[in-house]
Amino acid sequence: MTIELLEGLTTTRAIRRYTTDPVSEDHLSTMLFAATRAPTGSNRQAFRFVVLRSSPKAQEAKALLGSAFRSNWEAKRRADGYDETEPDSPTARVRRALQEFVDGFESIPVVVLPCILPRHGQLIDGASIYPACQNLLLAARALGYGGVLTGWHSSVEDQLKTLCSIPKAYSVAATIPIGVPKGNHGPVRRKPIQRLVFEDEWDQPAQWAMDPPGTRFTG
Amino acid sequence: MTIELLEGLTTTRAIRRYTTDPVSEDHLSTMLFAATRAPTGSNRQAFRFVVLRSSPKAQEAKALLGSAFRSNWEAKRRADGYDETEPDSPTARVRRALQEFVDGFESIPVVVLPCILPRHGQLIDGASIYPACQNLLLAARALGYGGVLTGWHSSVEDQLKTLCSIPKAYSVAATIPIGVPKGNHGPVRRKPIQRLVFEDEWDQPAQWAMDPPGTRFTG
Predict the structure, then answer these.
(1) A52 contacts A58 by C-beta, under 8 angstroms
(2) pTM listed for this prediction
């Protein structure tokens, strides 16, 4: 069953809970091929992708990441008041999903580290790596998988680079775990489009921009 | 005719030459809807999209951008030796396309300015805006259009922000022109995947990563 391009773009969710099903090498190759088809400045392709699966080295890197993810989540859980919500609320569901995500980090079948050689030391460097991250997530969705773009490796980036022999000059732009979703992909929730899309000037809503009927919004 | 997700990810080219055909408001709405479905850190959605079409304000902003693009191209053309190539070489074709792109910038039907409120002042801020830029380009491709992710607004970013009332705290992450391609989308050229995708450690090619038969490469 194939998914249509527009449908894929609007229904790819951040997936943080995975079954124990493996990711096939064939599918992994297709995902990474799709990732590397994304644009980079002047097609310079100063991006590289380090894939972690189940080798001893991969397990060591995943353990380092897992410990960083658990610390990050612990801090976020307190700072954002995740514990003070009703058990049935959407926030409580997110809390449980995140807890499961960090607790089981080491068993996620695939973790991809997208790396980039920064050129400007500015925001625009991201234009040569995050489109590829999005392609990777979309390709995962096309093949029945799911993943999530996270920055929680940042506190252990130097150790991670040493461990995986990533040159000092490169930045690890994200950590992207991938697996078979326990939940489902489907329409994502955002703010009403009139608050996100302007014409000509800031805060001047684009009259033609409309959320399709049935769109659900973030609170 | 719809395009399949994986096919779209691997065949969306940077399009810099456009016909004079307009971009319909309905299609534009669909593209921006798709852009805003991309992930952002903690689903914070600190992204905004300013769309420029043909109003006097849009024309003023496009003229400012056009002049910056022409200066950038002039500098790049000299620095990268574009003038010293054989007339029939691929580089000469790129040179002609870029010249046409900057010369006619003001007549490109749609120019999108994706903006982001930076949170960390680091590369990771790009993870909350460039996936949306990629979704925008992929949605354009799905609907028969094409565009290109550029950073050539940077030299006039402050003037552009003043002109379009973009708050000082936001960054204009890119300039994305969109129109009906004069050329075609199709397979893109990249380095061999073995040079881009590693397993466990830097420079350790992932054995399972393979370019599909018929893949063409950059020089």
Answers:
(1) yes
(2) 0.98
Chain A residues in contact with B47 by the CB 8 A cut-off are 196
Mean pLDDT of B46-72: 98
Contacts of A50 in chain B (CB under 8 A): 198-202
Residue pLDDT, tens place only, B90-100? 888 889 999 99
B49 neighbors A197 (Cβ within 8 angstroms): yes
Give the tokens for residue A138. 């979309």
pLDDT tens readout for residues B154-196: 999 999 999 999 999 999 999 999 999 999 999 999 999 999 9
Q: What is the Cα–Cα distance from B12 to A211, expressed in whole angstroms? A: 25
Mutation site for A-interface testing, chosen from B59, B136, B185, B197 by largest number of A Cβ within 10 Å: B197
Counting the structural domains of chain A, the total is 1
B113 & B211 share domain: no
Residue B57 sits in which domain range? 5-188
Task: Give yes or no: residues B95 and B140 share one domain.
Answer: yes
- Per-residue b or e along A25-52, where b marks 16 or more CB atoms closer than 10 Å to that residue's CB: eebbbbbbbbbbbbbbbeeebbbbbbbb
Rounded to the nearest 5°, which phi and psi values hold at B194? -65, -20
DSSP reduced 3-state for B136? helix
The mean pLDDT of chain A is 96
